[in-house]
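Exercise 7b. C-alpha cells:
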C-alpha cells in the first residue's frame, strides 16, 4: 500500500508541467486526486477542459483515482468549486498543493496594471481563494492536513523583469509562514516549495534545448518532495520553504544578522554608516 493510501489530494494547475508530475506521484503513492486546471496558455489567457482531462485519463489508466476540475483558482467561487469537486467525489480533503501559475514578465517601467493584476490574482489571491475553504474543511475534519504552496526563487532571491511574479511568490512565502502558525493546533502543516524545472514556463531559457539538461531539470525531480510533505513521513515538518529541482533539495531561510544595537538614544545616519558592515553581517 502506498504511503498516501486513503488520502485525498487537490493539485491546482495540474493539467501540465510541474503540477502534472505532482499529481502522478501523489496518485502512485495511493492518494485520490482532484486535477484542477483552467487549461489556458502560459500568460493565463484562454481555457479548456483537455489539459485536466488528459491527466485524469492518465491516472485512471495507471489504476489510480482522479476527477477533473476546471475552475480558476483566482476567484473565491473557483476555490470553493475546487473543494466541492473533492468532497463530491471523495467526501474529504487531506492534501492541497497550490501550484497553478501564469507569467506576464516585463520590467517595471513597462509593466501595465493588467499585467500586475493578472499575476497577483492567479498566484497570490489564488492561494487565498483555494486554501481558505480547504483549510476550513481540514479543521472541521479534525484529522489534520498538509498544504504545500509554490513560491519561487524569483521572489525569494529576485529576478530581473519579474516584479509582479516575484511579489506574488514572496507573498506566498509569507502566507505560508503565517498560516503554518494558524494550522499548528489543528495538525495542519503548511510548507512551500521554490521549484526549478523545465516546463512551458521556462522553455525560453537558452539551455532548454540541451538533452542532458532537459533530463536533469525534468519536473519529475520535484514530485518526490511533494509526496514526502503530503505524507506522515513529514508529520513534524511545517513552516518550511524548500528549494527543489535538478536533484537538489535544500531549505530556503530568512536570515536576520546579529546586527548592531545602540544601547541609548537614537541612531544617527553617520553612526549607521560607520556600523554598516556589522549591521549587514
Ligand atoms: P505551467 O505553465 O506548465 O503550469 C501551470 C499550470 O497552471 C498550467 O497547466 C495552467 O493551465 C494552470 N493555471 C494557470 N492559471 C490557472 C488558474 N487561474 N486556475 C487554474 N489553473 C491555472 O508552469 P510550471 O512551470 O509547471 O509551473 C507550476 C508552478 O511552479 C507555478 O506556480 C510556477 O510559478 C511555479 N514555478 C515554476 C518554476 C519553473 O522553473 N518551471 C520556477 C519557480 C516556480
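Sequence design result:
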Amino acid at each position: 500500500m502506498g504511503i498516501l493510501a486513503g488520502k485525498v489530494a487537490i493539485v491546482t494547475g495540474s493539467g501540465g508541467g510541474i503540477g502534472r508530475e505532482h499529481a502522478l506521484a501523489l496518485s502512485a503513492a495511493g492518494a485520490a486526486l482532484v486535477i484542477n486546471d483552467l487549461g489556458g496558455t502560459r500568460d493565463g489567457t484562454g481555457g479548456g477542459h483537455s489539459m485536466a482531462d488528459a491527466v485524469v485519463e492518465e491516472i485512471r489508466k495507471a489504476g489510480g483515482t482522479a476527477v477533473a476540475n476546471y475552475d480558476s483558482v483566482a476567484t473565491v467561487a473557483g476555490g470553493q468549486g475546487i473543494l466541492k469537486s473533492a468532497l463530491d467525489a471523495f467526501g474529504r480533503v487531506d492534501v492541497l498543493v497550490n501550484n497553478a501559475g501564469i507569467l506576464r514578465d516585463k520590467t517595471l517601467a513597462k509593466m501595465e496594471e493588467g499585467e500586475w493584476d493578472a499575476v497577483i490574482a492567479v498566484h497570490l489571491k489564488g492561494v487565498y481563494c483555494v486554501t481558505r475553504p480547504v483549510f476550513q474543511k481540514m479543521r472541521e475534519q479534525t484529522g489534520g492536513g498538509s498544504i504545500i504552496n509554490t513560491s519561487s526563487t524569483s521572489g525569494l532571491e529576485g529576478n530581473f523583469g519579474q516584479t509582479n511574479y516575484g511579489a506574488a511568490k514572496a507573498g506566498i512565502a509569507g502566507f505560508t509562514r503565517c498560516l503554518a502558525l494558524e494550522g499548528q493546533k489543528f495538525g495542519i502543516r503548511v510548507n512551500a516549495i521554490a521549484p526549478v524545472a523545465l516546463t512551458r514556463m521556462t522553455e525560453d531559457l537558452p539551455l532548454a534545448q540541451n538533452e542532458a539538461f532537459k533530463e536533469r531539470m525534468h519536473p519529475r525531480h520535484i514530485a518526490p518532495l511533494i509526496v514526502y510533505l503530503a505524507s506522515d513521513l513529514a508529520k513534524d515538518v511545517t513552516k518550511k520553504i524548500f528549494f527543489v529541482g535538478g536533484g537538489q533539495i535544500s531549505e530556503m531561510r530568512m536570515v536576520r544578522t546579529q546586527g548592531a544595537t545602540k544601547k541609548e538614544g537614537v541612531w544617527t545616519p553617520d553612526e549607521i554608516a560607520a556600523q554598516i558592515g556589522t549591521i549587514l553581517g
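Instructor comment: The first strand starts at residue 8 and ends at 11. The chain is about 40% helix and 15% strand.
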